[in-house]
UniProtKB/TrEMBL annotation:
Reactions mediated catalytically: adenylyl-molybdopterin + molybdate = Mo-molybdopterin + AMP + H(+)
NCBIfam families registered for this protein in UniProt: Glp_gephyrin, molyb_syn
Function summary: Catalyzes the insertion of molybdate into adenylated molybdopterin with the concomitant release of AMP.
EC identifiers of the protein: 2.10.1.1
Alphabetized SMART domains for the sequence: MoCF_biosynth
Name under which the protein is recorded: Molybdopterin molybdenumtransferase
One GO CC term on file: cytosol
Keyword Metal-binding listed: yes
Coiled coil feature spans: none
Keywords associated with the record: Magnesium, Metal-binding, Molybdenum, Molybdenum cofactor biosynthesis, Transferase
Organism name: Fontibacillus panacisegetis
Similarity remark: Belongs to the MoeA family.
Protein's GO biological process: Mo-molybdopterin cofactor biosynthetic process
């Protein structure tokens, strides 16, 4: 059997004639095929990390009753007008309102209700005075009945320690827009409004497999000339971080027909297929041929970037196929720049791309290149400003520094490199978010 079993007649020459397109053009070419998925309902406790499928409006004002902000006494503020240490005022305590209970007694001038933080304030009261600012007095009235009073020695203004209805939200206010990622604050809002079945977008099912005759499964002992398949697991994690549901398929050897049938089978059950390896121009790099088959429309097979210049994308049966580089660094970057936005778009997310900001370069970066570089970097916040340090090893083939990277530093094509202290654009990596 020929050593070149992976390539097809005429396919190899094609492989060398690649047109490198800009990153933004490559990203734009993908998005039309990333269509919004349908809505499903999940329990609130399982909504973390999902994307909202519907706008959520406030079904009631929040808070929906006037509540006390302190443990103290609900009073009618005019009763304290003109009072001072020399001229204290005494109010009779006529009610006791724990949290969760309603007032029992109608307050009139000269009376007060003992009230706890978070309890409903009687309608007649317009202020709460905290315990510490009062003195409790027990004495008998004219009928020799034991009575409780409080002594107040300063004026209390209207509204003191009282949270009005709707302070945070009015009835019908838009609270959470569809497309929003559900995190801690969103969960709190949903719980507050009793939304226990949360409308979320179905997660895209993303099949992932590696190609490469050198690959061992992670359980296998090492063999000379072979390596363990780390990319599949790295990608599965990236898929999860991006909001997709990864389906790990067995790696295959470098064989075009095998890869074709594997991709076809994967599309029968999944929304996206991601492969890694065989994306370049080597004798056994089969993906270039795979994406030029009859039933596949290639979107691009070279991008003006490093690492990941060989990143390839195609459409089959209306679904996206990403053939990422086998080199771990290029595979990682290829995912973040191209697969992530596709997943995010299918989720209806408002943030398709990695968030961007600027930071000062902590150390000169001297590599020059005609393509934009996406260099792994670590943020440093000491001295009160954000500095970013490029990883010591940032070659496409290097795996080890991925774990230490917070951002990708964007180094535009340059002939001089970038000096320390210059401001650079950085793309924030997810680092374990779900
Ligand atoms: N003559 C040329 N050679 C290369 C070019 C080129 O333009 N002309 N491009 C280089 C660039 S850039 C990259 S990036 C790599 C891309 O390689 P492939 O996508 O074809 O990937 P492989 O050849 O299959 O493997 C490359 C490298 O990665 C290791 N690998 C593969 N799969 C995995 C995996 N699942 N887990 C961990 N590591 C994996 C593999 O063993 C190789 O070491 O091509 C350059 N060459
Ligand atoms: O695709 Mo390669 O990673 O540019 O080095
Ligand atoms: Mg190769």
């Amino acid at each position: 059997m020929s050593n070149l079993a992976g390539s097809e007649a005429g396919g190899k020459a094609e492989k060398f004639r690649r047109q490198a397109i800009e990153v933004s053009a490559a990203q734009a070419s993908i998005l039309p095929y990333a269509r919004l998925l349908d809505c499903e309902r999940v329990l609130l406790a399982e909504a973390q990390g999902r994307t909202l499928a519907e706008n959520i409006t406030a079904p009631h004002p929040y808070p929906h009753f006037r509540r006390s902000g302190m443990d103290g006494f609900a009073i009618i503020s005019t009763d304290t007008k003109g009072c001072s240490s020399e001229q204290p005022v005494e109010l009779e305590v006529v009610d006791e309102i724990p949290c969760g209970s309603l007032p029992n007694v109608k307050l009139v001038s000269g009376t007060a209700a003992r009230i706890m933080t978070g309890a409903k304030v009687p309608d007649e009261a317009d202020a709460v005075i905290m315990f510490e600012m009062t003195k409790e007095i027990h004495k008998k009235d004219a009928n020799h009945q034991k009575k409780k009073y409080i002594e107040i020695r300063r004026e209390i203004e209207v509204g003191k320690n009282l949270t009005p209805v709707g302070l945070e939200l009015a009835l019908g206010d838009l609270i959470l827009e569809k497309g929003r990622h559900i995190g801690t604050g969103e969960i709190s809002v949903l719980a507050t409004f009793g939304i226990h079945q949360v409308p979320v977008v179905r997660r895209p099912r993303v099949a992932v497999f590696s190609t490469g005759s050198e690959l061992l499964s992670v359980e296998e002992p090492l063999q000379d000339g072979k390596i363990r398949n780390s990319n599949t697991y790295m990608l599965a994690n990236q898929i999860r971080e991006a909001g997709g549901e990864p389906y790990i398929l067995h790696a295959i050897e470098d064989n075009l027909e095998l890869a074709r049938s594997k991709v076809a089978a994967a599309f029968a059950q999944h929304d996206i297929v991601v492969t890694t390896g065989g994306a370049s121009v080597g004798d056994f790099d089969i993906m270039a041929d795979l994406v030029t088959g009859n039933d596949v429309q290639m979107l691009f097979n070279k991008v003006q970037m490093r690492p990941g210049s060989v990143t390839t994308a195609a459409v089959k049966d209306g679904k996206l196929l990403f053939a990422l580089s086998g080199n771990p660094g290029a595979c990682f970057v290829g995912f973040e720049l191209f697969v992530r936005p596709a997943i995010q778009k299918m989720l209806g997310s408002s943030q398709l791309f990695l968030p961007e900001f600027s930071a000062s370069l902590g150390k000169a970066y001297s590599k020059v290149n005609s393509f934009t570089r996406f260099v792994r970097g670590r943020l440093d916040y000491s001295d009160g400003r954000v500095m970013v340090y490029p990883a010591q090893l940032d070659e496409s083939s290097v795996m080890i520094t991925i774990k230490d990277s917070d951002v990708l530093i964007v180094i535009p094509p340059t002939t001089t490199g970038v000096h320390a202290g210059e401001m650079v654009k950085v793309l924030k990596l997810p680092r374990g978010t779900t």
